[in-house]
Amino acid sequence: MDAVVDRSSGIAQRIADNLSSAVCLLDGGLRLRYINPAGEALFGVSAKRLLGTPAEDLLSSPRLAALLTGALEEGQPFTERECRMSVSGEQGITVDLTVIPLREPPELLLEMHRVDHQLRIAREENLIAQQQATREVVRGLAHEIKNPLGGLRGAAQLLESELGDSPLREYTGVIIHEADRLQNLLNRMLGPNTLPHKRRINIHQVLERVRTLVQAEAPPGVHLLWDYDPSLPELHADLDQLIQVVLNIVRNAVQALPGEGEIILRSRALRRYTVGHLCHKLVLCIDIIDNGPGIPEQMQQKIFYPLVTGRAEGTGLGLSIAQSLVNQHGGVIECRSRPGRTRFSIFLPVSEPEEEAG
C-alpha cells in the first residue's frame, strides 16, 4: 500500500512540475512547502530560496493572506480573479488565483495563472518584428546612401590632388572627413556584420567584466550592486557580443543617474518561459536596474529604434545594436520604467525551443 501511495505522489509531482500554471503547496502554518518550475518562473526566484516563505510575503498581499487563513480554517475552496501581486520588487503582475484546502494534514493547494502572459508574448513578438523591420529599412537606406557617398568622396579626392598647395584643399578635406563620418555612422547603424562566435560561457563572467569596467569609470556616487543566482547553467553564446550588450545598457544607466545612485545587476533562471512565440525549457534573465529618473512613457516604445535618444550628445544606436545582438542569440530585451526605477531585462534561451505557445 505504501508503495502505491509513493508512486501516486511521484506521479502527482511529475504532473505539477510540467504544468504551465504556477502551483504552490502551503502547510498548516501557511508557509511554502512546494512550488513547481512554473511558480519559480512566476516569482523569478528558485524553489530553494522560496521554501518556507510565509504566504503573506510570498503573495505580497495581507488581504490574500487573510483569505488563505479563512480557507484553511473553513475548508472551503475559492477563486480570486485578476489578483495584483508584487513580484521581485516590480510594480506587479496579474494572476487568477485558485485555492483548494487539503486535509490530513491541513494544507492549501494554490494554482496561479498569469493573465497578462499573452500580453507579454505579443509585446515581445512586436519587439522582435520591430527590430527585423528596422534592420531591413536601415540596410536599404544604407545601400542607397553608400553609393553616392563613395562617389562624393572619390570626387573630392581627385579634386584635392588637382589643387596642389591651394588653400581650397581645406574644403576638400572637410568633404572627405564628413563623408568618412557618415560612412562610420551607417556602419554602426547596420550593427555587426558577422555571425555570433558562440561557445560555452558563464553569464556571470559577462556581468562581472562589465561591472568592473563601469565601476572604474563611473562617478564616485554611483554604486554597482549584484544579485546573482550561482546555480545558473552555462550559456552557448558569443562572449564579446554579450559584453557589448550589457555594457551599452549599464553605461546608459550611469548616464541617466544624476551623478549618484545605484545600479543592480541581477541574474535568474526562468523555466518553461516563452520568448516571442517560442517556449523554452530554460531561459536566463539578466536584469539591469537603476534608481534614476526613468524613461518618459512616450519614449519607452521607441528606445530600440536607431537614432532615438533622450540625450543631446547621444547617437541613439547603443540600444538598437544591443537588441540586434540579443535577437541573434534567440532572445529579446525588454524595458520597464517609472520614476525611480528603470529595469532592462535580457532574456537568453539556454535550450532549443520545444513548442509554440498557443
Molecular structure report:
This protein is an alpha+beta fold. The chain folds into three domains: 2-115, Beta-Lactamase; 119-190; 199-356, Histidine kinase-like ATPase, C-terminal domain (Heat Shock Protein 90, 2-Layer Sandwich). Helix content is 45%, strand content 27%. The chain contains eleven helices and 13 strands. It has helices at residues 2-17, 37-43, 47-50, 55-59, 62-74, 117-163, 169-190, 203-217, 239-256, 297-300, 318-328; strands at 22-26, 32-35, 78-85, 93-102, 107-114, 199-201, 221-227, 235-237, 260-275, 278-290, 332-338, 341-349, 353-356. The strands form three sheets. Strands 7, 9, 10, 11, 12 and 13 form a six-stranded mixed sheet that branches. Strands 2-1-5-4-3 form a five-stranded antiparallel sheet. A hairpin with a 2-residue loop joins strand 11 and strand 12 (341-349). The longest helix is centred in the middle third of the chain and has 47 residues, at 117-163. It is elongated, with a radius of gyration of 26 Å. The two termini are 40 Å apart. The model is unreliable at 1-6 (pLDDT under 50).
